[in-house]
Structure formats: structure tokens, C-alpha cells
Amino acid sequence: MKNENTDFIIGRHPAVMALKSDQEINKVFIQSGLKADAISQIVKLAKERHLVVSNVPKNKLDLMTDRQNHQGVVLAVAAYQYATIDDLFDNAAKHGEDPFFLILDELEDPHNLGSIMRTADAAGVHGIIIPRRRAVGLTSVVAKTSTGAIEHVPVARVTNLVQTAKELQERGVWLFGTDMKGKDYRTWDAHGAVALVIGNEGKGISSLLKKTCDEMLTIPMVGHVQSLNASVAASLLIYQGFNSRHPLK
Predict the structure, then answer these.
(1) pLDDT score recorded for residue 6
(2) What is the mean pLDDT of each run of 10 residues along the chain (249 residues)?
(3) Where in the chain is the domain with CATH 3.40.1280.10?
(4) 140: closest CA among 52, 73, 47?
(5) pLDDT at residue number 151
(6) Which of 96, 101, 158, 204 lies at a C-alpha separation of 20 to 30 Å from 113?
(7) Looking at the domain 8-77, which fold is it?
(8) How many of the other CB atoms lie within 10 Å of CB of 104?
């Protein structure tokens, strides 16, 4: 695991999830004057971990979070930990399943990443791979949007996605990209070791990474808008992967 820069966890539910996890937390900030029952679980969990709890005015939390909706709770945390590719394979092995990974090609919106992590956790994805440059990383906004999934889905950050994709293929993983000219995603059989590649919000998958993919998938659309939000498209594809791997009895 690799550590990055310090950050904040914002909001009540993300704070509870972080306090229940192994995430290293430096300090807990609670807005002065909040009703005790609204934050009782957070205070209890913080005390169990022997953490310092500071009651501070709302304007201090507003400044700390750049005026995001913090719900009166902010955790100052040690750096989010990024996994290695081996960690992702180990996570699949721990569950006794063939690997099911996501590769996110230069995703820029932290809300999209957080939403994708939430779906990935729900559908049993074993890990996410993102590039080190020109892409959003694990930030407080991602953590809040993920509603706690950030604590359960390992994320590897790599220097070169194409090289990593080839490494996955050498380790038996089949790569599926997304493209308007691909096969209908509803026919996708995600059995075996697979990685689903999701492109940038505007540009899609880079040409080199697209050439590396073993097969392309498309989401058919009959309406007037011929594109979907990246996290919505990812969710549809992830759940088709889930459906094929866990069919109804």
C-alpha cells in the first residue's frame, strides 16, 4: 500500500464508515450545538478508537471543507492508501472469485469516481485502477460521494494504463472496453478474469488503450441524447457483469 497526501472525510455516513474501518484518522471535528442523538454513533466510535474529538463552530468546518455539505462532521485523516495490482488480485482470491476489475481512463469528475466506487462495491468488483496523471484521485469529495465504499474497494494508481492493461492480460485477464461500435453490452458474459475499461467523460478511452482491449461493448440508445454520464454508463456495464457472473437460479 502507498500513502498520499492528507485529506478530510466529510459528512456523517462517510465518517461512520471510516471510523468502523482501518482508515488512519488523526482528529474528529464536530460542529458545536448539534443534537447529541444525531452524532452519538460518531462520538461513540471515536472514543472507542481513543481519538481526539473537537467541538468547533460551523464556520470553521465550512472553511475546512471549502463550504461543502459537511453535516457538522469532519474527520482529519491520514493519506488514503492506494493498493497495488497484486492487492487487487489478492482481494479477488480472498473472495474465492475470478478477478473483476475496473480501469478508469482519465476520469476527471470526483463525483463520477465516487458514484462508480459505490456501484463497484455493491456489485462485488474486486478493485479499480486509475492513472497517476490527468485523473481524479481519492479525495474527500470522492469519499463523500462513495458513501463509504472508498473503505471497501481497493484502488490502484499506476503510471501507465496501457502497460498495466498488458500486464493484466499476461496474468489471464480479458479486457472489455466501451465504444459505439462494440457488441451490445447485454450479451456480455463476464465469467472468468475480466477488467472493464471506462473512458474519460468527454474523450472516451484513449486510442492506445482501446487498441489493447480484447473486445468492445456498447450501450444501445434510442432516445435523442446519444451519450450517458460516465458513472451511469459504468453502472449499467458493471451490473451486466454482475448479472452474468451471478445469474438468477
Answers:
(1) 55
(2) 60 91 85 87 91 90 87 83 94 97 93 95 96 85 86 93 97 93 94 95 90 94 76 95 92
(3) 85-245
(4) 73
(5) 86
(6) 96
(7) 60s Ribosomal Protein L30; Chain: A; (3.30.1330)
(8) 24
Per-residue pLDDT, 116: 96
Task: Find where cell 461513540 sits.
Answer: 44
Residues 176 and 187 sit within 8 Å (Cβ to Cβ)? no
User: Which pLDDT score is estimated for 2?
Assistant: 38
Where do we find the cell 457472473? 245
Q: Please, which residues have CB within 8 angstroms of residue 203's CB and are 6 or more apart in sequence? A: 106
Fold of 85-245: Alpha/beta knot (3.40.1280)
Name the grid cell of 210: 482501446
Q: Do the Cβ atoms of 179 and 210 come closer than 8 Å?
A: yes
Q: What is the DSSP string of 78-142?
A: PPPEEBPHHHHHHHHHHTTS--EEEEE-S---HHHHHHHHHHHHHTT--EEEEESSSS--S-HHH
